[in-house]
Design goal:
heterotrimer, A mainly alpha (196), B alpha/beta (370), C alpha+beta (150), A: 196 residues, mainly alpha, 8 helices, 0% strand, C: 150 residues, alpha+beta, 4-stranded antiparallel beta sheet, 5 helices, globular
Chain lengths: 196, 370, 150
């Protein structure tokens, strides 16, 4: 994997290997927060931040603490602790600097902790044997990919409000269908570059 | 083996420890707002620890803004002007503020957090509002659904208020109701009797606080209330006072009229009181005695649906009927003042008639909690 | 259905003593969502929308207001409202308050009465919520359609 340029990994994780639309990770907050573009942008940026920070930290912890000590099997606990702390940190920052965003994100801000996209990225990074630079680029790229997906969904949902949807499909139903269609569209990218 | 366990534990503990340390430092840096200075009306100043809502910060300084929802951001009573030291309007405030209010920096104090020095403006009379501890002295039935509750003050021992203002009574948890709520009731006792207040409480269908007062409150029980509030009081003037009330809307007028009697006022006053049947009518004797004590005061009770055996020979019809009849036979209504207290429906109907007959809307007063 | 903390707060609002004395669920063990879903289905089968029912109920309140607590005769119906002072929040956690109006409508030829509040009209209109079984202001959607001719 070392041969891959970090930039390739960066763009690949946004488009061909979009963490949400291709791997279907991080669906929970994606479904619930994507009602408005403004809040989606806020949550998306928070996810980008958390992903970048945690992929870097987790890389360092994995290769410089866990591997030398031979306790790689504890990586889940270690990763989760790092993720939880990063989320806590960003919660403090958002509360201090944008209360509007803080209220809009509500419970979904702390819930980033259990956003599986974030643990997923850290685990992929280990499985795919990325270098440090590659890992950080992978984290940032995946974050941006998630942001892109949730922004697109929010845009679509705002338009959908003006349309007549069959009552049975209103809410999560139609959102899941749209997600499926978006995912199919993203499969179109998959021939360009392979990163697995 | 032991060594391995120790290493593993130490490694995990180390990681958590470093992260925890990092968070503690961050908390110091981000979540610590330090001491904030709040300046009220450019006169009073106090310093508090930042981080909590403006409403509770003010409460901690014994300044009580009215609040009926307990800081949930639904009642919009706790509005105040914040001139400096606050961020943009929050999504939780937006639906409750009008555009003019937003332009005047009006905010909901229960939603705004104190994060830096603030400069705020609140109405002068709110400085007077205090929390009182009291004991239930007596509970009397006025009608089948209205009770008169006398609260004897224990701490502080005296209250000063303007006749017509109201108190916010805090209920206690009872049978199935786990939380305490606070509700507003007009003070019916005269302001010169400073050691107690009287409240008239009408049973509201499904009401939490009124059911508590009617079914659970005992004489001798200790209760708390916050008072005085409201800007429903008499504006000194020459013109005639035309008062209209229904149900527990009687309360503020008892206080107002006792004050008038004591002052030996010579103002012309007419008081219309509406009830459905005779069993909804109360305080008639008290009113007749006030008629004797006040030179120019007339009490006009009206029943809208008297029962055959009520034996009623007074005014009949909705309260708007005698009111309209009265206004029709008078001119020069521009100088008179209107005072209304009762259900919002009654108030709306009366305002409409008063305006039709040429009374000015800025001379019609009614209490705000509708 | 997965419940977020927000939903748990909302659920709490329906219990006795939070907004009204008896609460909005009565002895109905179902979750608010289930109650809403079932009533919406029943209404849809009768080809009616919650808005239509709410409009009709609001009409009675508006007529009743004219009576100032006395009975208003509307031919086939009589309406009486009690308008207490003060305002109530909606249990669905919206920043809007509702007047404390309770309305009693009597359908003369059927000799039946039913009772509801301004808040019930709002909850039917905006949230499709008719109240839990056994709660004081529960309105049965099937009966509503029959009684109101909405």
């Amino acid at each position: 994997m070392e041969s891959l340029s970090p930039w390739v990994i960066f763009f690949a994780s946004i488009f061909t290997g979009n963490i949400l639309l291709v791997y279907f990770l991080g669906m929970c907050s994606f479904l619930s927060v994507s009602a408005q573009v403004k809040t989606s942008l806020g949550l998306g940026l928070a996810v980008v931040f958390v992903l970048t920070v945690t992929s870097a930290l987790n890389y360092l912890i994995y290769y410089y603490v866990l591997v030398p000590l031979g306790i790689e099997y504890l990586r889940f606990i270690a990763f989760i602790i790092v993720i939880a702390s990063a989320v806590q940190l960003i919660e403090m920052i958002i509360e201090r600097f944008s209360e509007v965003l803080y209220i809009n994100l509500g419970i979904f801000l702390p819930l980033i902790t259990v956003n599986c996209a974030i643990l997923g990225v850290s685990l992929f990074m280990v499985i795919r044997k990325y270098t440090f630079i590659q890992s950080v680029m992978f984290g940032a790229g995946s974050g941006l990919g998630w942001l892109l997906a949730i922004l697109a969904m929010a845009g679509i949902r705002q338009r959908i409000n003006e349309k007549r949807i069959p009552p049975a499909l209103r809410g999560p139903g139609i959102v899941l269908i749209i997600t499926g269609l978006m995912a199919m569209a993203f499969i179109g990218f998959s021939g360009i570059v392979q990163i697995q | 083996m032991i060594f391995k366990i120790l290493i593993t534990t130490a490694a995990m503990a180390g990681i958590s420890g470093v992260l925890a340390l990092l968070l503690v430092l961050a908390e110091r840096f981000f979540a610590n707002y330090g001491e904030c200075k709040i300046t009220i009306n450019d006169e009073e100043e106090f310093t508090i620890e930042g981080g909590s809502s403006l409403l509770s910060s003010l409460n901690s300084q014994k300044i009580f803004l009215p609040s009926a929802c307990g800081g949930r951001g639904t009642c919009a009573y706790c509005k105040c002007k914040v001139h400096e030291g606050v961020g943009p309007i929050l999504p939780t405030e937006e639906p409750l503020l009008t555009e003019e209010e937003m332009a005047e920096n009006v905010r909901l104090s229960c939603q705004v957090k104190v994060k830096q020095d603030m400069r705020i403006e609140i109405p002068e009379e709110l400085f007077n509002i205090k929390e009182f501890e009291s004991e239930v002295d007596k509970i009397t039935d006025l009608t089948y659904d209205i009770k008169l509750v006398r609260l004897k003050l224990t701490e502080p021992k005296e209250i000063s208020f303007k006749p017509g203002q109201y108190a916010q009574l805090n209920s206690k948890p009872y049978n199935g109701v786990k939380e305490s709520v606070s509700r507003a009731y007009s003070i019916a006792s005269p302001h010169f009797e400073k050691d107690h207040i009287d409240l008239m409480v009408r049973l509201v269908p499904e009401g939490i606080c009124t059911t508590w007062v009617h079914d659970y409150l005992q004489e001798g029980e200790k209760v708390k209330f916050v008072a005085p509030m409201g800007d429903f009081y008499i504006r000194e003037d020459e013109g005639e006072m035309i008062m209209v009330a229904g149900g527990s809307g009687m309360a503020p007028f008892v206080s107002i009229l006792e004050d008038m009697a004591r002052k030996k006022s010579k103002r012309k006053m007419t008081y219309f009181f509406g009830a459905v049947t005779k069993k909804d009518l109360f305080y008639v004797e008290e009113m007749r005695s006030l008629e004797e004590r006040i030179e120019n005061f007339t009490f006009v009770p009206a029943l809208s649906g008297p029962e055959p055996d009520d034996d009623w020979d007074g005014e009949t019809g909705l309260i708007t009927v005698p009111l309209e009849k009265y206004l029709k036979s008078h001119d020069d209504l521009e100088k008179s003042q209107g005072y209304l207290c009762g259900s919002p429906g009654m108030i709306d109907a009366c305002i409409k008639i008063m305006k039709n007959y040429g009374m000015k809307s800025d001379r019609i007063f009614y209490d705000p909690f509708g | 259905m997965k419940k977020t903390p927000q939903e748990n707060i909302i659920h709490k609002n329906f219990l006795p003593g939070v907004i009204t004395k008896e609460g909005f669920l009565g002895d109905d063990p179902r979750h608010v969502h289930e109650i809403v879903n079932e009533d919406t289905r029943i209404l849809a089968r009768l080809n009616r929308t919650p808005e239509q029912v709410a409009d009709r109920l609001q009409f009675f309140i508006e007529q009743g207001k004219k009576g100032l607590e006395t009975k208003v005769d509307l031919g086939d119906y009589t309406v009486q409202i009690i308008w207490s002072r003060g305002l109530l929040p909606c249990p669905f956690e919206e920043p809007r308050l509702h007047h404390k109006i309770t309305c009693t409508v009597e359908v003369k030829d059927l000799n039946r009465t039913f009772k509801y509040s301004q808040l019930s009209v709002h909850m039917i209109r905006e949230h499709g919520f008719f109240g839990g079984r056994g709660s004081p202001f529960r309105l049965n959607p099937t009966e509503m359609v029959e009684l109101l001719g909405a």
